[in-house]
Amino acid sequence: MTRRISLTQYLIEQQRQHGHIPQELRLLIEVVARACKRIAISVNKGALGEVLGTAGSENVQGEVQKKLDIIANEVLIEANEWGGHLAAMASEEMEGIYLVPNRFPQGEYLLMFDPLDGSSNIDVNVSIGTIFSVLKKPEGSVGVSEADFLQPGTAQAAAGYCVYGPQTTLVLTVGDGVVMFTLDREQGSFVLTEDEVKIPEDTKEFAINMSNMRHWDAPMKRYIDECLAGSTGPRGKDFNMRWIASMVADVHRILTRGGVFMYPWDKREPGKAGKLRLMYEANPMAFLVEQAGGAASNARQRIMEMQPSQLHERVAVVLGSKNEVERVTRYHLEAK
Ligand code: FBP
Ligand code: AFP
């Protein structure tokens, strides 16, 4: 019988044999995974758990909050605040950072998350997910402030997501490749099901919200026009399109079979760099994609090298199969 490796076993082996992760980080990842299991239970209950629909409030970015956005945010905070591994948390659903209350021990790590990504898919029973990114508090900083979070993606100690779809899958990197765990619902544990996730360098599949095409700038239009031209166009091959409108689900497909995901800059909001958030969406996904052999840029530079200037900063995102990401980036740089 094939040996089943649980998330706990995997993390303990990483800690013991490879020295990749300190004990505090192992604990942190396990706690995040446990929170994801609780979120998965709420997601699965759907209408029976009265978790669908809007909550009647807005988050800091002026977006209408769904009940599950709030539930998932609370589950992640409650699960993580008491363990002693964290100094503070930040979330898409909270304006400022969340300090670990004084009654609990303080740790060295900072946790950021999008508790429920793909909000527009919650009520329609399509895959959604939780995205997380882990940083270390800068050496020598006293207390914790928002500035401690403003580190580039290259500083991430770990990143991952959990996708709530036909299966619940946890995808993780601690900087040594990408691994996937499938939730065994009967046992209640995450079981290792992919230990060397690799994104092919080439692809014939792209993901973008085509309804925004008229708002893109010229290099983005050029890239998509060439894909749409198919085998008789400059690319000499036919492309397929997929758009789930949950970044987790689109990135999961790319980590599984390749492809390129784009959420470009948009003329409608010239002051903003894109729709997606740098700190808790783009950076963790970029870390995963790079660790799987892919690439991630903002169409001009590597996402992981961007210096964030605020917690809820937005960024244009192009990620996935390396040769396509490089092509999109090249088109933008040539047009400068
Ligand atoms: P939320 O954080 O509000 O869920 O927005 C993020 C997101 O849902 C991404 O997961 C997805 O790729 C994108 O927005 C979909 O955008 P659009 O509605 O333009 O298709
Ligand atoms: P299958 O029966 O092979 O799954 O095809 C049906 C279907 O997946 C349908 O559910 C989708 O709407 C459609 O095909 C998608 O087709 P494209 O691959 O052309 O997008």
Automatic annotation (TrEMBL):
Enzyme Commission code(s) on record: 3.1.3.11
Enzyme superclass (EC): hydrolase
Cofactor: Mg(2+)
GO molecular function, one term: fructose 1,6-bisphosphate 1-phosphatase activity
Binding site for Mg(2+) 1: 92, 114, 116
One GO term describing the cellular component: cytosol
Cell compartment(s), UniProt: Cytoplasm
Location of the Fructose-1-6-bisphosphatase class I N-terminal domain: 6-194
Pfam families reported in the protein's UniProt record: FBPase, FBPase_C
Pathway of action: Carbohydrate biosynthesis
Binding site for substrate: 117-120, 209, 275
Domain Fructose-1-6-bisphosphatase class 1 C-terminal: 199-332
Chain sites annotated for binding Mg(2+) 2: 114, 117, 281
Reactions the enzyme catalyzes: beta-D-fructose 1,6-bisphosphate + H2O = beta-D-fructose 6-phosphate + phosphate
InterPro entries in the cross-refs: FBPase_C_dom, FBPase_class-1, FBPase_N, FBPtase
HAMAP family: FBPase_class1
PANTHER family attached to this UniProt entry: FRUCTOSE-1,6-BISPHOSPHATASE-RELATED (PTHR11556), SEDOHEPTULOSE-1,7-BISPHOSPHATASE, CHLOROPLASTIC (PTHR11556:SF35)
Family: Belongs to the FBPase class 1 family.
Subunit and partners: Homotetramer.
Protein name: Fructose-1,6-bisphosphatase class 1
Record organism: Roseateles oligotrophus
Upper taxonomic lineage: Bacteria, Pseudomonadati, Pseudomonadota, Betaproteobacteria, Burkholderiales
Gene label: fbp
